Amino acid sequence: MKTTIAIFVLVISMVTGMFAKGITGINPTADSATYKLTVVLSDVNNRSGKLYIGLANNEATFKGQSIKNIAIDVPASGEITVIFDGLTPGRYAIRLYQDLNSNQKLDFSGQMPAEPFGFSNVTRLMGPPSFDQCSFELTENKAIRISMMEM
Questions:
Q1: Of residues 32 and 62, which shows the higher confidence score?
Q2: Residue 93 backbone class (left: φ over 0; alpha: ψ -120 to 50; beta: rest)
Q3: Sheet order of strands, 35-42 included
Q4: From CA 61, how far away is CA 112, in angstroms rounded?
Q5: Are residues 87 and 69 part of one domain?
Q6: Is residue 27's pLDDT more than 70?
Q7: pLDDT score at 107
Q8: What Pfam families does the record point to (predicted)?
Q9: Which range (5-9, 69-73, 99-103) has the least confidence?
Q10: What whole-number distance in Å separates Cα of residue 51 and Cα of residue 77?
Q11: Which of 13, 54, 98, 111 could cysteine-pair with 116, CB 3.0–4.6 Å?
């Protein structure tokens, strides 16, 4: 009888522990961790217009609609800092452009951008970059620096 009660208590504590941690046995708070990505923009030579910053998490969101977007007015001086909060761990890339004529799109002169632009992890272009070239791992709060480019 004592053995049966001990086994019953052991099984109950194991099942209770599984539900407290989730079926997989992983602490649910670890899965819900989010991080902050701080993007610092430098080499902003033209101090007018708006900056449009897009955050991508795969090739499709890098080439198409970003998963998060921020638009800010370009300040009169200094570096520009933008923060993306509440990001889950993963692989991300940043793409951005400076809209100088307020038409809310990156203008081109032929095939070359006519307005300043930038990408994470890219300082020199040899054609359009891919998500893999621009991406980085986010596993903790992180700050990245992006230099604006002009053609």
A1: 62
A2: beta
A3: 80-87, 35-42, 142-147
A4: 22
A5: yes
A6: no
A7: 98
A8: DUF2141 (PF09912)
A9: 5-9
A10: 14
A11: 98
Domain count, the chain: 2
Are 73 and 19 members of one domain?
no
40: its two tokens: 């610092």
Residue 32's pLDDT is what?
A: 80
Residues 76 and 130 grouped into a single domain: yes
**Domain extent at residue 120:** 33-147
pLDDT tens digit sequence for 37-51: 999 999 999 999 999
Measured at the CA of 112, the angle between CA 127 and CA 104, to 5 degrees, comes to 115
37 and 20 within one domain: no
pTM for this prediction: 0.78
Question: For residues 112 and 36, what is the distance between their CA atoms, to the nearest angstrom?
Answer: 33
Helix or strand (DSSP H, E) at 108: strand 108-109
Statement to judge: residues 18 and 92 lie in one domain: no
Domain of 143: which CATH number?
2.60.40
Place of tokens 């890219």: 122
